[in-house]
Amino acid sequence: MLAVVVTLLLLVVLAVAVLGMVAVPARRAGREVLTERGTAAVAGLRERADRGGRPAGQEPERETVAA
Q1: Core vs surface per residue 2-20: b (16+ CB within 10 A) or e
Q2: Residue 65 to residues 19, 62: CA-CA distances in angstroms?
């Protein structure tokens, strides 16, 4: 079990290193990391988070309390 955990941690470190090798130089060169579609998706997620995760136009459900 310890070997599995250590292996997973090593893979996560490797993934972060590869991401850093690709994203950081691209960002320094002035290129955006996300595409237009990715930027739009992030903007939509932020709007949903501001509304509390509800779709547009949907009212929150009211809780009923039994007496």
Answers
A1: eeeeeeeeeeeeeeeeeee
A2: 50, 10
End-to-end CA distance of the chain: 51
Prediction pTM value: 0.48
What does DSSP assign to residue 30? Answer: T
Question: What is the tens place of the pLDDT at every residue in 14-37?
Answer: 999 999 998 888 888 888 778 889
Rounded to 5 degrees, what angle do the CA atoms 21, 24, 26 make? Answer: 100
Does residue 60 carry a pLDDT above 70? no
